[in-house]
Amino acid sequence: MAKRTLFYPQPLLGQDTGDAQSLRSYIERLALSHNMKPRGLLDTLLKEHPLEDLSADLHQLQKRWAVHGFAEVGAQLQSRLEAATGSSLAGATLMRYKGLFASVNLTRANDPVYCPCCVTESEGAELPYGRLLWEVQCVEACPVHRVKLRSAKLCGAQPEERLPANQRPSLSGVCIQCGSVGFKCLAKEPLPATGDEIWVASQVRRLLDLPIERVARCSAESLRTGLTELVKCVYGGSVVRASQQAGLSRASVYTWVAGEILAGLPGLLQICFHAKADVCALIDGVYRSLDSSPAEKSPPRRLQVVERTYNRSELNDDQIRELLEAAATEAEPPSLMQFARRHGLNVDVPRQRFVREAAVLAAANAQHMQLVYERRYVEAVHAYTAAVQALLRQGLSVHAKSIQKQSGVVAFSQNHPRVRALQEVLSKHRLETGEEKGGRLKAA
User: Fold this and answer.
1) Which helix (H) or strand (E) holds 112?
2) Poorest-pLDDT segment among 30-44, 177-191, 410-424
C-alpha cells in the first residue's frame, strides 16, 4: 500500500509549459482545497516537514512570496510540498536556471500582477491560477493576449463592497479586496502592450517552455560560449561596443564573457533584442538569429529591459536643468531619486551639479507628499469614525483591533497617516465616553 501523503495530491497546472503555475498559486489553491488559509497550510506542512537550517518567518514569506527565484527557502519549500503531496513541482519556480542567470532582478517581490484576459478564461479550471511567467520581474505583458499585465492591488469595487481584512481571499486571479473572481470588479479594458513588451514576455515564455531535461544540460560555460559567439558575429568581437549599443554599462558584457559574474536575465534579454539573438539557443552555447524581433519591423531604437539605464551622456547640462525645472511644476512632482531613474542619471548629478533646481524639486515633492499623507489621514479618520459608530450601534467593544476589523482599513506601523488617525479617533472616543486611557473600551 502506498504511503499516505500529508495533503491531497494536486498536480501542478500547466506543468512543462510556458503557462506553468507558480509556487505561490499552487500553495494558495492547495490551501483552498483543504479549507485552510495559506498560513495554516504552511504551518501544518513545516511541522511535518521542517526546513533545514532556516528559521522561516511565515508572515514575511507570505508578504513577499520570494520563493520563485534562487532563494534556498523556495527550493526547500518546493521539496517539502512534493513530499507532502506526491506531486512534481519542478516547473513552479525558476530554480532550474540557477547557475545560468544571476539572482538579482529576477523575480517580483510583494508586487503581484496578472493578465486581465487569462484570469477570465476558465480553461477547464474552476478558478484562475497564477502563472510563473507573471512572477518574472522583467515581464510586463501577456504574450498570448498581447496586453499589459495589471497590478493585483487594484480593485474596482466601491469601498462598501470591499471585504474586511480578516475575510479577504488569498488566491491568484481573485481580487484580494472584494473577492471578485477574475477581477471582474475592474470593468476597464486591458491596455495593449507594446511590441517590445510582447517580445520580452515571449522570450521568457519560450525559456519556461523548455523541457527541464534540456535546461539541466546547459551551464554558465555554455552561456558564455554563446555570448562570445554573439559578440564576435554581431559586434566584431568588441564587448565594449556590444554593451554600449545594447544600452548596458561598458563592463556588463565583458564580465559575463569573462565569467566574473553571471548574466542577469533582463540584461541578457536586452542584448538579445538588439543583436536579434535567440536566447534559448544562447544558453545552449550557440548564437542564432531570431527573425521575429520587432526591431526589424520598425526604426532602430533601444529596448530598456534593465531598470537602470546608462545613457547619461545623451543629456547635456542645459537639458537636465530644463527637465528639473519642468519636474518641479508637475501635478505630482517626483523625488530626486525618481527623477534620476526616469532619465537614466546618477542621483548625485542633480544634487551636486544643479543645487538650486534640485532643491526646488525636492521642496515641491515634499509639499506634494505632505498633501498625500494628509489625504490618507482624512480618509482613515472617516473610515475609523464610521467603524466606531457601527460598533456602538451593534453593542460591541470599541478598541483598536475591532475598529480596524470593522472598517477594513489596517493601520500598519509603516503607514503613519493611518496610525495617527486611529490614535486620534480612539482618543476622541475615550473623551466622549469617559473611559480611562488604559482600559478596554466598551460600547456606550
Assistant:
1) none
2) 410-424
